[in-house]
Write a structure and sequence with these properties.
The complex is a heterodimer.
Chain A lengths: L4 E3 L2 E5 L4 E6 L6 E7 L5 E8 L4 E4 L2 E6 L4 E6 L8 E7 L9 E2 L3 E6 L1
Parallel strand pairs in A: 2-11
Antiparallel strand pairs in A: 1-3, 3-8, 4-5, 4-9, 6-7, 7-8, 9-10, 9-11
Chain B lengths: L4 E3 L2 E4 L5 E6 L6 E8 L3 E9 L2 E4 L8 E7 L2 E6 L8 E8 L11 E2 L3 E5 L1
Parallel strand pairs in B: 2-11
Antiparallel strand pairs in B: 1-3, 3-8, 4-5, 4-9, 5-6, 7-8, 9-10, 9-11
The chains are: A mainly beta, B mainly beta.
């Protein structure tokens, strides 16, 4: 079963708008990571947030983590057409384990 | 720097045939992960290795699947015999020593798209 569940499954916005994707998970985690996948390509790591962190920024990306609610959000500001991709959250569900478990992803479409 | 290299990128085969997928890790990485991606089930972890040793193969669907790391930089995933339900994109990913998915990021290859007729 999937550890992370992304919401929404699909999101379509206009270029320049902000895009927010959410991820919920079930068990305690060591860290949570976000990945991006362009159509027909492999996954690319975007950002990692540790369980003792609440917010992290990287360029136009902002990630939050609420361990009490077992949820995370990824915000992409000032979206561009090139941001069109699928975005996945991934968690390591057990302390000490190395099994990165992915959610089903959010398909983001940026309309020019 | 070369990333994770997978081959073949595409394979079409008939049911019952043996399929071998190959993966070359990034130099210096010591953890290797095989994932399978389908529309229905998303990304599933099949097996992962640390320092050439299989650590967890609980995701391998059945005995028809096997994976090896004959050396520190190369891995194979074999399906014998293949079935139509094995059709998927198979990814391998590697990570740096001392990190793995426990703390750091995974570096993915571009995937091998398998179609079993």
């Amino acid at each position: 079963s999937q550890q992370g569940e992304e919401d929404p499954q699909a999101l379509s916005i206009q270029e320049g708008e902000n895009a927010t994707m959410n991820c919920s998970y079930k068990t305690s985690i060591n860290n949570l990571q976000w990945y991006r996948q362009n159509s027909g390509r492999g996954l690319v790591h975007l950002i990692l947030i540790r369980s003792n962190e609440r917010e992290k920024h990287s360029g136009r990306l902002r990630v939050t983590l609420d361990t009490s609610k077992k949820s995370s959000s990824l915000l992409i500001t000032a979206s561009r057409a090139a941001d069109t991709a699928s975005y996945f959250c991934a968690t390591v569900p057990d302390q000490g384990a190395q099994k990165l478990v992915f959610g089903q992803g959010t398909r983001l479409t940026i309309n020019p | 720097d070369a990333g994770v290299i997978q081959s073949p990128r595409h394979e079409v085969t008939e049911m019952g045939q043996e399929v071998t997928l190959r993966c070359k890790l990034i130099s210096g990485h010591n953890s290797l992960f095989w994932y399978r991606q389908t529309m229905m089930r998303g990304l599933e972890l099949l097996i992962y290795f640390n320092n050439n040793v299989p650590i967890d193969d609980s995701g391998m669907p059945e005995d028809r699947f096997s994976a090896k790391m004959p050396n520190a930089s190369f891995s194979t995933l074999k399906i014998q015999p293949s079935e139509p339900r094995d059709s998927a994109v198979y990814f391998c990913a590697s990570s740096l020593p001392g990190q793995g998915a426990n703390t750091g990021e995974l570096f993915f290859g571009e995937g091998s798209r398998l179609t079993v007729l």
